[in-house]
Amino acid sequence: MLPALKENISIMEQLNTQLFLWLNATPDSPHWLINFATILAKDVIGIVPLLVVGLWLWSPKQCLDSRRELVLKTATALLYATLFSFVIGVVFPHPRPFAIGLGYHWLNHSADTSFPSDHGTFIFTFSLAFLFWHRAWSGIALLTIGVLIAWSRIYLGVHWPLDMVGGLLVGMIGCLTAELGWTFYGKALLTFAHKVYRQLFALPIRWGWTQH
């Protein structure tokens, strides 16, 4: 059993390496494409907190409760996924491509463990949460952005393809755990979050800048 497992892992590593070398940018790659990938890899992830804040503060009244539930369920899914990702990274550390001198490195990054990808975990968890708990179109749109971010970080040489697959799988597990847990603590968490929000944002709420 163990030799078969080692053989399968070896095959996966070979496939991982081949895919990485196929996707990784080289000195002959167009500079505009490297710049575009850099923007995707560093900046586009910022849509996540902006979207979350916008949904909580300014959703229409008729869907305010459902949107805020979506925000909290997404937040708990992200929390679970981040925890799972951290544990996997500690138990099964995997070097980044540039840490072993493979390919070309176009983005400054520490040589910490790469699997699963933190960026992949974050954006895929968020995307799947919207796919499961909001609308299909919003989830698909965010998944498309997630795939572009995943591609960019492989293209720039800081991640392996399987790091991103790992992020997607961890995101699925995070969403599943959040869905199962919501039955037990969801209502209490929503009540508590509303209480804290109304205390911290009392003035903006009173002035009509944000929803109650």
From TrEMBL:
Xref: SUPFAM superfamilies: Acid phosphatase/Vanadium-dependent haloperoxidase
Species per Swiss-Prot/TrEMBL record: Rosenbergiella nectarea
Domain named Phosphatidic acid phosphatase type 2/haloperoxidase: residues: 70-179
Catalysis: reaction(s): di-trans,octa-cis-undecaprenyl diphosphate + H2O = di-trans,octa-cis-undecaprenyl phosphate + phosphate + H(+)
Keywords: Membrane, Transmembrane, Transmembrane helix
GO CC annotations on file: plasma membrane
Enzyme Commission numbers on file: 3.6.1.27
Protein name: undecaprenyl-diphosphate phosphatase
GO molecular function per UniProt: undecaprenyl-diphosphatase activity
Keyword flag Transmembrane helix: yes
Transmembrane intervals: 32-58, 70-93, 140-158, 164-185
Superkingdom, taxonomy of origin: Bacteria
Enzyme class: hydrolase
Xref: InterPro entries: PAP2/HPO, PAP2/HPO_sf, UPP_Pase
